[in-house]
Amino acid sequence: MRRSHGLRQRALALKREALTVWIAARDPRTPWAAKVLAGAVAAYAFSPIDLIPDFIPVLGLLDDLVIVPLGVCACLRMIPAPLRQAYRAEASHLAARPVSRVAGVAIAAVWLAAATVVAWYLLR
Questions:
Q1: Residue 85's pLDDT is what?
Q2: Which DSSP category does 116 fall into?
Q3: pLDDT, averaged in runs of 10, over the chain (124 residues)
Q4: Using alpha carbons only, what angle is made at residue 101 by residues 98 and 103, rounded to the nearest 5 degrees?
Q5: Is 114 helix (H, G, I), strand (E, B) or coil?
Q6: Are 83 and 29 in contact (CB under 8 A)?
Q7: 26 neighbors 73 (Cβ within 8 angstroms)
Q8: CA distance 102 to 76
Q9: Residues sharing a CB contact under 8 Å with residue 31, sequence separation 6 or more, in sequence order
Q10: Where in the chain are the domains?
């Protein structure tokens, strides 16, 4: 049980760092090369679409365990330390906000509706 707690903490830390990268991508003070990389890493980290789909055994999860942390690390190294600290503080503040279950249900409903329309179109 103790080990899973440590993994959960690491996952939360990675999520917070990915949020830091997303904030950096949107800030005009971020150097342009870091901004481009940050945008790509944040888009990949928060996108439901993966380079290798998760249903493929081992490789599907391996891309998330390798690509996202390496991208976040590379991006954070490109950002000057004072900006990085400011972005991390903002990310911690945003991560501490409560999760909206209503928004989650609304997003799930939109995906379900889209899947239904696509299935109806394909089966027609």
A1: 95
A2: H
A3: 70 86 93 92 79 74 82 94 94 78 78 90 88
A4: 100
A5: helix
A6: yes
A7: no
A8: 33
A9: 78, 79, 80
A10: 2-98
